[in-house]
Amino acid sequence: MFITFEGLDFCGKSTQVQLLEKYLLENDKKVKIIREPGGTPISEKIRDILLDKKNSEMSIETELILFSGSRSQLVNQVILPALKDNFYVISDRFHDSSIAYQSFGRKISLAFVEELQRFVIGKAVPDITFFLDIPIDEVIKRESKVKQIELDRIELSKMDFYERVRKGYIYLSEKEKRFRTISGQLSIPEIHHIIINEIKKLEI
Asked: Which domain, by its residues, includes 140?
């Protein structure tokens, strides 16, 4: 099964990825955890370029193509082989992030970004996508607890950018049947419980 987690920065995705991995391993499942951008030697080099605050002059077109290039390598080198070998593949972000961040957030043509992502992922379409939704004021609240020096290039974006990104995720949640929207303001155990129940439904 291919499971992806999406949402605004600081929504709690990474915590839920770890909890789901623990649950699956305890139930004797083979699990592969990946993150985006990254996950392969080439993709990790691209990640360093994308998130480096020194690269503030990066154009939005370059950003989109780099994310997509990193993703293509991950699909072919890691995701498809792992799925073929009956792993549960769990990704902290995937192609939906480009639609939300680069199309809605950066205002690049939606039709173009969607077509590019279809080309990039090929047959690697997630079975289920968990969207942890938090309002923008919660992003501000959680971001304030992180030292500025620890924030990457994307996390330093302005709040109006995050407003557009959230609209992108809401658009996807209404369009894609594989999306499951969960309030990121619920407690960590509550969110985990919902996720496990949704996974069990797919396994039946």
From this structure: 2-203
Q: How many domains does the chain have?
A: 1
Among 84, 73, 88, smallest CA distance to 38 is for: 73
Whether pLDDT at 36 is above 90: yes
- Global pTM? 0.92
pLDDT exceeds 70 at position 151: no
Closest CA to 64 of 33, 34, 109, 8: 109
Neighbours of 127 (CB within 10 A): 14
Find the farthest-apart pair of alpha carbons in the chain and give their distance in angstroms, rounded: 49
Check if the beta carbon of residue 73 is closer than 8 Å to that of residue 122. Answer: no
CATH number of the CATH domain containing 89: 3.40.50.300
